[in-house]
Each structure stands twice: as structure tokens, then as C-alpha cells.
Amino acid sequence: SQQGEEDPQALSIQEGENATMNCSYKTSINNLQWYRQNSGRGLVHLILIRSNEREKHSGRLRVTLDTSKKSSSLLITASRAADTASYFCATDATPSLNNLFFGTGTRLTVIP
Amino acid sequence: DAGVIQSPRHEVTEMGQEVTLRCKPISGHDYLFWYRQTMMRGLELLIYFNNNVPIDDSGMPEDRFSAKMPNASFSTLKIQPSEPRDSAVYFCASSRTMADEQYFGPGTRLTVT
């Protein structure tokens, strides 16, 4: 089934470093979204990038989308301990605008 | 708005019992989604509604699972009879349109013993 797949599965960095997570998907999309999940909580939407966009910024977040490679990356700059969470990408499907498909997530640990 | 509200937050029940999970979406959101999250399978979409009508329930694992949305402000996910493998965190989410971001509730942690 179509699904975003994140890599790496887990990432551990020092506070202040940048964190990069990648997402690959299988078929054409209308948009790709990144979500964050703190342990024991629901998912929180971070950013949405449409298929005709290549890059988007929101605060310390930078998302890129390469539709030719069917991949996206999420960069968190100057990471903080509070960024420790799981990060998921979610893709929809063209042309039916069907469900959002979530990947299995990247578990990010930022060490103070 | 208070966001998506789910109840109960935790549920512990014995195998064979009926379990009902509840969700109140954000007012004005036309889409409601039920997800299940486990370590093994990650986040799985079970069913979603548009304007109270179930659109795709292909993710519902078995006939033991059923979901309803009697009105725009309330939905239930029922498991009858429950089994230990149903233990998971169940999330409800809502969105304005299919292409918009989804707002997730805090989840219901279900444990079936």
C-alpha cells in the first residue's frame, strides 16, 4: 500500500546540532505533511508542502520535496532537548484525494 | 476551540468485553478519522467519515470493530468482543477538508487483558 517511509528509524544528536529526517513514498501525491508526536500524546501537525512546491520553511523547520525522487526531508536546525519526539510524514494520493498514509516515524532524541 | 476530545483516556478491560471509544471533533471540521497505533504496526487508519458518512472502512481489522458518527459532533469506535491483540492507542483526528492538516485528539490507551 502507498505509505510514507521515514529514515532513519532513530536519530540521536546533541543539542544545537541539526537533525535531518527523510521520507520516501511510492505514488504521486497532492501534498506531503510532517507531524510530530511526543511520547504518550497525539500527533501535532508541523508543516504541509504541496506537490508544486520544492521547499518550505517554518521557524527552525525546513522541508524539501523532490517529486521526481518521491522523497521529502525535514530539517530541524539548532535542535533543542524539547525537540525530542517522533516525527512522521504523511502523504495523500492522487487523483482520488484519498486517505493520508503515515509512515512508521523517526524517533529523534536530542541530548542536552 | 478545545481541540479534538477523546474519552476515556485510558481503558482496561477483560477479553470478551465490549469497548466503546468516543470522539468529539473540532467544530466545523467535515472529516473525522480513527487511527490505531502500536509499536509493531505503527499508525494505521481504521476508518474515516465525511459529513458523518463513512467513506472508507477498509482499515477496520475485523467485524468486531464498528464505528458510527450519528452527528457532526460525535463519533464512536466499538470493539465487541475485545481481544488482547486489540491493545493499542486509538486516536481520533479531524480536518476541514481532505487536503488540510489533521488535528489529533490525545488518544485512548486501550489494554485488553
Give the count of helical stretches of chain B.
0
| Estimated radius of gyration of chain A | 13 Å
* Shape field of chain A: globular
Low-pLDDT residue intervals, each spanning 5 or more residues of chain B: none
Q: What oligomeric assembly is this protein in? A: heterodimer
Give the CA-CA distance, first to last residue of chain A: 38 Å
Instruction: State the shape of chain B.
Output: globular
By DSSP, the count of extended strands of chain A is 11
Task: Briefly note the structural class of the backbone of chain A.
Answer: mainly beta
Q: Report the radius of gyration of chain B as a whole number of Å.
A: 13 Å
Low-pLDDT regions of chain A: none
Mean pLDDT across every amino acid position of chain B: 93
Largest interface: A-B, 22 and 20 residues
Question: How would you describe this structure to a colleague?
Answer:
The complex is a heterodimer of chains A (112) and B (113). Chain A is mostly beta strands. Chain A is built from no helices and eleven strands. In chain A, strands 2, 4, 5, 9, 10 and 11 form a six-stranded mixed beta sheet that branches. By secondary structure, chain B is mainly β. In chain B, 0% of the residues lie in helices and 55% in strands. Chain B contains no helices and eleven strands. In chain B, the strands form two sheets. In chain B, strands 2, 4, 5, 6, 9, 10 and 11 form a seven-stranded mixed beta sheet that branches. Chain B has a four-stranded antiparallel beta sheet with strand order 1-3-8-7, with no helix packed on it. In chain B, strand 4 (31-38) and strand 5 (42-50) form a beta hairpin. The mean pLDDT of chain B is 93. Classes of the chains: A mainly beta (112), B mainly beta (113). Chains A and B meet through strand 4, strand 5 and strand 10 of A and strand 5 and strand 10 of B.
